[in-house]
Design a protein that fits this description.
homotetramer, 126 residues, mainly beta, 8-stranded antiparallel beta sheet, 51% strand, globular
Amino acid sequence: MREPLGRRRWAIAEGYIPAWSHGPEPDFTSHETACILNAGEREANVELTIFFSDREPAGPYRVRVPARRTLHLRFNDLSDPEPIPRGRDFASVIESDVPIVVQHTRLDSRQAENALLSTIAFAGAE
Amino acid sequence: MREPLGRRRWAIAEGYIPAWSHGPEPDFTSHETACILNAGEREANVELTIFFSDREPAGPYRVRVPARRTLHLRFNDLSDPEPIPRGRDFASVIESDVPIVVQHTRLDSRQAENALLSTIAFAGAE
Amino acid sequence: MREPLGRRRWAIAEGYIPAWSHGPEPDFTSHETACILNAGEREANVELTIFFSDREPAGPYRVRVPARRTLHLRFNDLSDPEPIPRGRDFASVIESDVPIVVQHTRLDSRQAENALLSTIAFAGAE
Amino acid sequence: MREPLGRRRWAIAEGYIPAWSHGPEPDFTSHETACILNAGEREANVELTIFFSDREPAGPYRVRVPARRTLHLRFNDLSDPEPIPRGRDFASVIESDVPIVVQHTRLDSRQAENALLSTIAFAGAE
């Protein structure tokens, strides 16, 4: 059997949820997403910690990604233990008990035409 | 002779084929692409597996990339064993029998002006 | 205790501060950003060196990122020892005394609708 | 003395020079760029090879990047041994005799508003 694909620790140094949107909801709601792939055979228990410029981190936020599934997690939707503030810089660390792959995507629809960015997250050594 | 450039296992955690387009076809058809480079001297036999949030994975989809060639594979064009549904989150794992390089690009033309994203895919250890 | 997440040396080969902007300030001021995450328990002393195509490098520029904080550093704001010229190609090396994570983002608002790019920076071996 | 930052072999699996542009020249000419940073103390002799989907590779194209300099190389400008065709998929391998860092950026100005993408290139093991 092949080694599971991915790593257990990831970081996204960029984070920003625009404070307003433009276009039909929910597709064109401005959003910040951590796309998580669990290509393995065991459910992933994932914890996110959110870092700010001027206060202690928030979290952990807990999500589960079943075996052989992907979860495109919108930071906009996180609410427990607290929502992510809009219009403020943040960063995130994503930790899992099994290997996963994480990619960061933003749709910014503050102006009439949407803009997109995406990057593979930073993969820790483990 | 130098070691072939690339890896045999790759993952793209983000995937989404917009359900509609805007602008002249086919250049401005919204599309999601896995750009595959086979810079080596042997043909690459490539298998893609598509992961979803709420069902078992689809695939494998099989493509060949000849030696010293690139293939910019549109997920829109995959049909065997089944087409990729529009407007739904997915992720993909790309496996090859020889080293390749994979980059992920999207053109989103749902609004009047197109938006672009691109990132190197996640490279497995092998 | 787990190993701190990140690396001590990073590089961003792309850099360009557009010479003009469009849209409400300061959110839509064209900017080039190095997003730095210090997820560890010790303050990071960070030095940036800016490379050009036709002159010796500028810097070092010094910034501090407290423990458990992120800093989204706009190259536009660097002034000591000298401002970064607008409308000119540059690149940067970011060095820290503790592990950090660096991501590069640009908002280009020279035309009516903004465009975005982002990528994880290149992580050195250390 | 510290180890030079970067690698000697890089690949960009995505490549496409749009066939037309929109907006004031030359800033808004659609272009595909390999941003090369040579942060070291020795000049870099760089060779690019361009791969296509349906013919043998083109090149090598040779450029030099002086010590402590960056070169934002537009694929549009390559002409020797042959220009890169517009409107066609390609990929590239970049090889240097000293460590460099490579990032890939595109400005697409085919529609009224420009779109941007950028990603760190794939770094070979050496």
